[in-house]
Design brief:
The structure is a homodimer. By secondary structure, chain A is α/β, with parallel strands linked by helices. Chain A is built from 9 helices and 10 strands. Chain A has helices spanning 7-25, 33-40, 44-52, 66-76, 92-99, 102-105, 136-143, 154-166, 194-212; strands at 30-31, 58-59, 63-65, 83-88, 108-115, 124-125, 128-132, 147-150, 171-174, 188-191. Chain A has a 7-stranded mixed β-sheet. In chain A, strands 1-3-2 form a 3-stranded antiparallel β-sheet. In chain A, α1 packs antiparallel against α4 (66-76) and α2 packs across α3 (44-52). The termini of chain A are far apart. At the A-B interface, α1, α5, β10 and α9 of A face α1, α5, β10 and α9 of B. Chain A binds a DNA duplex through residues 6, 8-9, 32-34, 43-46, 48-49, 51-52, 56, 58-64.
Chain lengths: 213, 213
DNA sequence: TAGATTGTTAATCGATTAACAATC
DNA sequence: TAGATTGTTAATCGATTAACAATC
């Protein structure tokens, strides 16, 4: 199950989840694909196709129950499970991720950060201690950590990734400006690439200026 | 010019730029589409098609001159221009963005941050002062700011975006967990959505577990 | 010139949209 | 039951890949 679902579909699932959360917050109990399509600026067809990759969550003549659909998408995304996250690198980005309480709502809890800087060790961020990098492997094994966010310089990223994977981490959330990739297909990676995003923004500005000319 | 280029192509351009930078750093002077395709794990055909959207940068029988191609892609992305960036919200994410020196290499300079917290005002991060939010509009006008990064809570994002756009900002780099969109088509937006990225990572882990069963 | 590799056209593949029968 | 809206099949569109003639 859940195999062969295209990447394009997966990319859209968190977005549906987000809009459904907003609908719950505003007290909407049911919604049709066409209403949702207007809000999200996508076609109703796409919504129905996307959802039907995972099952029939709607009801003919009625639409979708917002809370039910929200919960189902949550399950698809694995948000009903607890995830233990560590952060490698207690710089500003590490702090930012550790401080963002909202992740907790979706089942992700930052249990510790790791850094080599002695000044940072002992600090506690949002309940999570900053530990010396030497304790990394043992900590992962002892605490059953599943995910690691990498907020280290580009040059350190691959080495750190190997280290945490060898200790048992199954998912890497990489903020360093390289594409990490693993031989071991059981390891998942998300490369964030903020710089790419900023460059696309720059492109968008430039190409609009050109159109004006 | 530069119109009608598909989004899929645009998304890949910063990635080419990144790989070319690495090639320069390792002293490679020329590269063929097939060599590059192996490194990047894409097809050579795609590389040639992508680049030819913007012009013929290669030479038959030779391949591509790495430095030349790098510079050309830089121009396409607008990295030869200086961009003045302000950051709205001097929290951890704001700090992280302001501290990331690498952006500077690509022509983006953070000139100021804005916050409403009096404790933060007066702080200087990587050369950029934290200013009170009341000075926002005047500052944008006086300093010809083109870009604004939003690292404020979700609820504040749309309001802040309107404010900076009204003062003349043409590009919004949005880190708040909402899709910002503008009537005014001359405004560019990049919505980052770190939470979506984390959810996709979670999905990836979950679906691999399911496959094993 | 011969060999290599691009630029570009044509073929294929996959994703999106449209249409409609099924059904609540 | 009639009306609404899904789930799903079929049609279209766009993006990717393959092939090859142009050319350095």
């Amino acid at each position: 199950m859940a195999r062969g679902i295209s990447n394009a579909v997966i990319r859209r699932m968190p977005r549906y989840y987000r809009y459904l959360e907003d609908l719950i917050d505003s007290g909407v109990e049911r919604i049709s694909s066409s209403e949702l399509s207007e809000r999200m600026h996508v076609t109703a067809s796409q919504i129905r196709q996307d959802l039907n990759n995972f099952g029939g969550f709607g009801q003919q003549g009625y639409g979708y129950n917002v809370k039910y659909l929200y919960d189902e998408i949550g399950k698809i995304l694995g948000l009903d499970k607890r995830h233990k996250l560590i952060i490698i690198g207690a710089g500003h980005m590490g702090h930012a991720l550790a401080s963002y309480a909202k992740f907790g709502d979706f089942g992700f809890s930052t249990v510790a950060l790791f850094d080599k800087d002695p000044d940072k060790i002992g600090e506690v961020i949002n309940g999570a201690p900053v530990l010396p990098i030497e304790q990394l492997s043992d900590y992962i094994r002892d605490h059953n950590v599943d995910m690691a966010a990498l907020t280290v310089p580009k040059e350190k990223a691959a080495g750190m990734a190997d280290l945490v994977v060898r200790a048992g981490v199954k998912a890497i959330w990489n903020f360093a400006n390289v594409d990490l990739k693993f031989e071991d297909k059981s390891v998942s990676v998300e490369n964030v690439h903020l710089t790419d995003s900023l460059m696309r923004l720059s492109y968008s500005v430039i190409s609009k200026e050109k159109t004006k000319e």
